[in-house]
Hints:
- This protein is mostly helical.
- The chain has one domain (37-162).
- Helices cover 76% and strands 0% of the residues.
- The protein has 7 helices and no strands.
- It has helices at residues 3-18, 20-23, 39-50, 53-70, 77-93, 100-124, 132-166.
- α3 (39-50) packs across α7 and α5 (77-93) packs antiparallel against α6.
Amino acid sequence: MNNKWIIGILFSMFLLEGTVFQYMNTDYYGSSISIYPHFVLGIIILISIYLGKKQALIWGLLFGLLYDIIFGRVIGLYMIGMAGIGYFGGWFIQFFHPTFSLYIIIQFIGQFAFEFYLFSMLRLYQLIQLPIEVALTHMIIPSTILNLLFAIFIFPLSRLLIENSNE
Length: 167
């Protein structure tokens, strides 16, 4: 896949997360459940599966730093998390043949680990005061499900794009 395509897709998802999807958040409408889209991370995990762990590490560092600068309260939090999850996905897939079910498993583990990592770090720095039970049921699991549904939706489109770019 051409780097121009990767930059375009990741940057457009980054812009959509920061603008359109903020108004689709249930927290915005007064619900007790907070769903945070991390679609860029889903694409970074996809990159790790099909293009390798080094590519995912680099894209995770770049877009994680962009998240930290624009949205973050702590510099380096998103950068380390996105790069680490991207590298993990690429490392894990090297032992198996990439299939759809393995893609879903890696997406689920990666998204859940990233959400739990964010909660843990924000709790460590005392930026949030939620108990773990509330965070799991009201933030981490709903966000993971939304991001997993997005990953399932983009899988066929991304496969076509990757296979056509290799020809």
